[in-house]
């Protein structure tokens, strides 16, 4: 499909199907069909997609505003989905929101011999604009139904007074509207995911993974991630998601539950080589460590075990409905990751209700499910539209951890993560503010090790503020 092929009628027809699926659910308090908030505005904006300057970004905003209905008509992994590798390393063309996330910390040298450190955050993502039935009815390919983006920030730390953050310029690609995006599918001999001039290219087992970003003179990335000496290429990752119960070191099932069915697994403690150039300065990597996530996070109108509550669009948490996530690669070869959820009112001490502590073993990982306490410290105020004025969003930039453990294993972990630079914010293709902040981890328990990691904050802007912005954006398209 070329740039002139109309997509608006197809998307509008799909939106009618989405509305029908929502209307099929009754609000138990009113016995009336559920409605999608602001559906008329969303539908009208879809009708203007063919005239929009950036149809991919508008489509991403529409998908976000559909909330728990954003995956209607797409295939979703069920609790009985059987993960199979290497096939599940590839993108899932008939499923919804999916991404590869890469975080790296690197010791670097400039051509003049100056040494310092640089961090990289990259998240290459895709959504489906329409469901599979709508795709078939329209005669679209899976790529026509795909909207892709690549989000990149680089933090440079060359010492006091020489610290800065650099954001890649927006890169949203919708092949149905002439954009360039492609990805490998099960059965392929190697992994690839291409978004415009950026790409991820790996082997059958993903590693080594070549990461390339081409944002002209502003930013180029040319790095390779490989397994470290303690792991084997085909077992260098561990399964996250719902924890297995037969062993405290068995890790997860690799699946996430309703109402966000998905797939989740990660590669800790990777080695990094190559170079990064920012605004004319090339930083050659002397040494580095990295982390990769492959995640599919869809939405569903269904609740676990068929429960009525929470009722979609009625009982969603406001004003906050987000999470804080982190990973830390420790200097002794271990690692840990985890998440806390901020629902409803702001909470600066949420439980770390989900996580895994990792120890290398026989070329792979012993992954122990952990829980504990988070302290979200030193909130900084950032503009929700990065680079512009207000509204402001408070995002904590320091994290404390205490009592992080598994009830079957002693030696609770405690520590603190402090930022390399106080800003790690950027806007996603839907305009929402996110933060990915590289951090130094300091062990305070005396039983583990220091390390390096990333602190992620998502969903800290009030729902009302984001919704007002998004509807104005749709109206103007």
From TrEMBL:
Coiled-coil annotated residue ranges, if any: none
Gene3D superfamilies in the cross-refs: AttH-like domain
Residues making up the signal peptide according to the UniProt record: none
Stretches assigned to the AttH domain: 244-295
Name recorded for this polypeptide: AttH domain-containing protein
């Amino acid at each position: 499909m070329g740039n002139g092929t109309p997509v608006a009628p197809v998307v509008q027809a799909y939106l009618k199907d989405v509305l029908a699926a929502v209307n099929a659910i009754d609000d138990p308090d009113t016995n009336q069909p559920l409605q999608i908030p602001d559906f008329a505005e969303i539908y009208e904006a879809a009708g203007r997609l063919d005239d929009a300057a950036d149809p991919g970004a508008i489509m991403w905003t529409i998908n976000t505003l559909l909330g728990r209905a954003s995956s209607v008509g797409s295939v979703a992994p069920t609790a009985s989905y059987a993960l199979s590798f290497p096939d599940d390393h590839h993108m899932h063309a008939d499923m919804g929101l999916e991404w590869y996330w890469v975080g790296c910390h690197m010791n670097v040298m400039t051509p003049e011999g100056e040494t310092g450190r640089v961090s990289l955050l990259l998240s290459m993502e895709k959504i489906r604009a329409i469901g599979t039935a709508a795709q078939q009815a329209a005669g679209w390919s899976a790529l026509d139904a795909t909207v892709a983006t690549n989000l990149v920030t680089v933090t440079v730390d060359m010492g006091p007074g020489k610290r800065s953050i650099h954001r890649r310029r927006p890169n949203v690609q919708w092949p149905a509207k002439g954009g360039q995006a492609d990805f490998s599918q099960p059965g392929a001999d190697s992994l690839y995911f291409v978004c415009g001039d950026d790409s991820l290219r790996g082997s059958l087992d993903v590693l080594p993974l070549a990461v390339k970003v081409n944002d002209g003179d502003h930013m180029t990335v040319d790095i390779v991630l490989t397994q470290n000496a303690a792991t084997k290429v085909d077992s260098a990752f561990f399964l996250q998601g719902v924890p297995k119960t037969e062993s405290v070191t068995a890790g997860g099932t690799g699946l996430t539950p309703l109402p966000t069915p998905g797939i989740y697994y990660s590669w800790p403690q990777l080695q990094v080589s190559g170079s990064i150039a920012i605004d004319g300065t090339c930083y050659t990597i002397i040494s580095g460590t990295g982390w990769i996530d492959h995640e599919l996070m869809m939405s569903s109108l269904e609740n676990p075990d068929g429960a009525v509550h929470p009722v979609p669009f009625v009982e969603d948490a406001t004003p906050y409905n987000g999470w804080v996530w982190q990973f830390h690669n420790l200097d002794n070869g271990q690692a840990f990751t985890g998440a806390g959820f901020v629902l409803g009112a702001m909470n600066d001490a949420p439980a770390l209700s989900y996580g895994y502590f990792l120890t290398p073993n026989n070329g792979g990982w012993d992954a122990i499910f952990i829980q504990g306490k988070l302290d979200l410290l030193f909130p900084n105020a950032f503009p929700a539209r990065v680079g512009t004025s207000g509204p402001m969003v408070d995002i904590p930039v320091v994290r404390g951890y205490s009592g992080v453990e598994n009830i079957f294993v002693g030696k609770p972990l405690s520590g603190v993560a402090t930022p390399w630079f106080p800003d790690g914010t950027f806007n996603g293709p839907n305009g929402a503010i996110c933060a990915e902040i590289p951090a130094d981890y300091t062990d305070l328990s005396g039983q583990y090790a220091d390390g390096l990691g990333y602190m992620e904050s998502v969903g800290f802007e009030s729902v009302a503020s984001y919704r007002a912005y998004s509807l104005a954006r749709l109206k103007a398209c």
